[in-house]
Write a structure and sequence with these properties.
The protein has 81 residues and is mainly α. The protein contains 4 helices and 2 strands, in the order E-H-H-H-E-H.
Length: 81
C-alpha cells in the first residue's frame, strides 16, 4: 500500500481549460445553476450561491477549478521525479 504522504495531485490543465472555454459562452443563469449543481455534488445543501460565487468571473473560476480537480490524477511522487 502506498503511503498517503507519498502522493501528489497532478492537474490535467488542458481538459480544465476546455471546460472553461465551453462555459464562457453560457449565460449567467446557466453558470449559476451549474455552480449550485457542483456545490450539491460535493455535499453543500444550499439553494443559493455563497457571496464568493456571485459574479460571472468567480463562477467561471470555480467551474474551472472544479474541472481541474475532477480531471486530475493522483500519482506516486516517486513516479514523477
Amino acid at each position: 500500500m502506498t503511503s498517503p504522504a507519498m502522493t501528489v495531485f497532478r492537474v490535467n490543465q488542458q481538459r480544465a481549460k476546455q471546460v472553461s472555454l465551453e462555459w464562457e459562452r453560457a449565460s449567467y443563469s446557466e453558470l449559476s445553476a451549474y455552480c449550485l449543481h457542483i456545490l450539491r455534488e460535493i455535499g453543500c445543501p444550499d439553494t443559493e450561491l455563497p457571496e464568493n460565487l456571485r459574479t460571472r468571473d468567480q463562477q467561471l473560476n470555480f467551474i474551472t477549478g472544479f474541472a481541474s480537480f475532477a480531471f486530475g490524477e493522483v500519482l506516486n511522487v516517486q513516479s514523477i521525479n
